[in-house]
Amino acid sequence: MNTVLVCDDDRDIVAALKIYLTSDGYNVLTAYNGKEAIDIVKNSKVHLILMDIMMPGTDGITALLKIRETNNVPVIFTTAKSEDNDIILGLNLGADDYITKPFNPVELLARVRSQIRRYTSLGSAVTENSIKVGGIEINDGEKRVFVDGDEVSLTPTEYDILLLLARSPGQVFSPTEIYRKVWDDEPFSSDSTVAVHIRHLREKIEIDPAKPRYVKVVWGQGYKMEK
């Protein structure tokens, strides 16, 4: 049984998260400030931390920095929508993901499962031929793709599009460029053809295809892999 540490100064939120996680089969430890979370991680085997950013005493950012000195356990920040700057800071300092309050239980559990799968099984697919962008790993030698540790099945065209974007994170490729590089042909109705394949690709690699984390559209220009 995997163990999740829930840390928030709001006891009602801790209680609600404990219910969600316990019903999904997780062992749950609780803390009400960053110092308690740090102590628990030192003394217990934890597979994931759900942690609030704004807490009295030792806040979530400070706790994250201390935990990252010795432990790479996944950390998902639970935040208010008004804490955008703190979210960005947390991700830059080593948080793995974030989710905003009020929680959608389905989304929350999906993010927890993804991070734990990545943490517990990542490494079996890593080779010198691998390309890694965030939670996506492409083993080009074996033509296999893993998202948060789980293998996904792509068509050859979807694979080639993903590989093209992942090799140049942040670079924008127009539909015409993608068509020429992937299909190796002069484009014919390239916008709609590429769009359909991008949509199918997102359905396989994104938690929420409508709000993609990886394959982003740059309106009027094309597509890119988020760095």
Question: How is this structure best described in words?
Answer:
A hairpin with a 2-residue loop joins strand 6 and strand 7. It is built from eight helices and eleven strands. With 227 residues, the protein is an alpha/beta fold. The chain has helices at residues 11-23, 34-43, 60-68, 84-93, 105-121, 156-166, 175-183, 190-205, and strands spanning 3-7, 27-31, 48-52, 75-79, 97-100, 130-133, 136-139, 144-147, 150-152, 215-218, 222-225. The two termini are 33 Å apart. The strands form three sheets. Strands 2-1-3-4-5 form a five-stranded parallel beta sheet, sandwiched between helices. The radius of gyration is 19 Å and the shape is elongated.
- The total count of helices amounts to 8
Mean pLDDT: 86
What is the helical fraction, as a range of percent? 40-55%
Strand order of the largest sheet: 2-1-3-4-5
**Can you summarize the main beta sheet?**
5 strands, parallel
Main features:
227 residues; 5-stranded parallel β-sheet; elongated; 42% helix; alpha/beta
Question: Outline of this structure?
Answer:
With 227 residues, the chain is an alpha/beta fold.
Describe the protein's topology:
Blueprint: E1 3-7, H1 11-23, E2 27-31, H2 34-43, E3 48-52, H3 60-68, E4 75-79, H4 84-93, E5 97-100, H5 105-121, E6 130-133, E7 136-139, E8 144-147, E9 150-152, H6 156-166, H7 175-183, H8 190-205, E10 215-218, E11 222-225
Parallel strand pairs: 1-2, 1-3, 3-4, 4-5
Antiparallel strand pairs: 6-7, 7-8, 8-9, 10-11
